[in-house]
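Lab channel / #folding
Pinned by the channel admin:
"Please post every new chain as: sequence first, then the structure tokens as a reply. Keep commentary short and put observations after the output so the thread stays searchable."

First post following the new format, from NK:
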Amino acid sequence: MIAPPDRTPLPRTFFDRPVLEVAPDLLGRVLVRTTPDGPIALRITEVEAYDGPNDPGSHAFRGRTARNAVMFGPPGHVYVYFTYGMWHCMNLVCGPEGRASAVLLRAGEVVEGADLARKRRVSARNHKELAKGPARLATALEVDRALDGTDACDSGETPLRMLTGSPVPSDQVRNGPRTGVAGEGGDGDLHPWRYWVAGDPTVSPYRAHVPRRRRS
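Reply from TO:
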């Protein structure tokens, strides 16, 4: 019999480590989104690490801005950004305060509150597509910039909370180039910082960066 996932909140010390340690260790952990309609719980199956000033693919590579300020704050907080003028994506801040590293949550399996997630992801063809990709994940959990800066380690009444879950054994973890990252940051030899659970159907497909064409 498989043991149920551990519902203990992850401590802040879990996130107060180098991002390349935290990222693969997040696989199998459970994120709980509390909404007025009820909770939605997500088992994390795919992530990407972004290492601040050492990483040309990171939003914090060129320093602090109003957009990325939460990345420089305490570990265990949520960094939400808006992209392509239509989608939100969710990250978890790692490392010591001021270091500006974070893990992008790319995909997961909805293990509780699937009916609520489906109301937000009406285009999903099946259960495995509810949170298959970072924008879909944020949409399914109703995450937007209003939740930027949320403390995911707070054990009280908080809209987002990270639980211990069931960590994935290292032999089931795969890694490779990050999806859609341009230039050196997308080089899989230099930055093989996308991590996923091998064989999990909720993991999103890899796509290389494609430059956006300017409208004439």
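NK: The beta strands are 6-9, 30-35, 38-50, 78-83, 87-94, 101-112, 160-165, 173-176, 194-197.
TO: also worth noting, Residues 6-197 form a domain with the 3-methyladenine DNA Glycosylase; Chain A fold (CATH 3.10.300.10).
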